[in-house]
Amino acid sequence: MKTLLVIGIGAGDPDYLTLQAIAALNRASTFFLFDKGTEKDSLIHLRETICARHIRQADYRFVTAPIPERRREGDYRQAVDDLNAAKQALMEEMIEHELADDECGAFLVWGDPALYDSTLRILAAIRRDGRLDFDYEVIPGISSVQALAARHRVPLNRIGQALEITPGRHLERFPAHLDSLVVMLDSHEAYRRLDEPGLHIYWGAYVGTADEILIAGPLQEVAEEIHRVRSAAREEHGWIMDTYLLCRGPADA
Ligand SMILES: C[S@@+](CC[C@H](N)C(=O)[O-])C[C@H]1O[C@@H](n2cnc3c(N)ncnc32)[C@H](O)[C@@H]1O
């Protein structure tokens, strides 16, 4: 039977790879990559660097498919469903044609596969559809959320309290029932809309990479600085990935 490994590779620093992930890399003969276009070439490059650094056998190969683009207009959920259907078709094709029956293939997932990533949902859908027979395992990785907290040297939650993680597009105001909130996928800088006094922000871009930028402080004092630095970095690199923790008061109080 074909085996697939879904390997969390951490969210930036090649040293984020766990010992379990390195062992998994060495079990696979074929690595499936989605090419996100030239602006994110460096992310593909990082995956190749990770393989070159950690894989001991010489005869592994990459199979790359162009990632389909998500529609930016119209219903968000429908656009994501359509994107995942297109990815599913590509993944099915790669698994069927690029992996022999007794071979082991791997998907290298940025950060951790359980957090804002569709690979596990798509593999489950492929299995449910029943056209392909394969087994798969998941190897957890260090997510951008953990990396962000480590780089700012703060805990994510207040003692005994809840922590919520949200995409930026759901953030209109800081939720009344929370002390701590992590915001990801925020291309519209939702933190700039928040006017509640006393909020602190721990912001990080390209965390764990050579381009890492960290800014922290009372939101009202640092929001415009984050906006300025973020805009300049986005301009310079052509793309940005950033995450932030918002808390009522300092996170480590
Ligand atoms: C599609 S999600 C993938 C999350 C990933 N699976 C993880 O475990 O972190 C992409 C979002 O993750 C966050 N992200 C990923 N890597 C990051 C990094 N190195 N620095 C800051 N944010 C990052 C950003 O919010 C970005 O918009």
TrEMBL record:
This is Precorrin-6A synthase (Deacetylating). One of its GO terms (molecular function) is precorrin-6A synthase (deacetylating) activity. It is an enzyme of class 2 (transferase). It holds the Pfam family TP_methylase. It comes from Pseudomonas benzopyrenica. Pathway: Cofactor biosynthesis; adenosylcobalamin biosynthesis. Its EC number is 2.1.1.152. Keywords: Cobalamin biosynthesis, Methyltransferase, S-adenosyl-L-methionine, Transferase. Residues 4-222 form the Tetrapyrrole methylase domain. SUPFAM superfamilies: Tetrapyrrole methylase. GO terms for biological process: methylation.
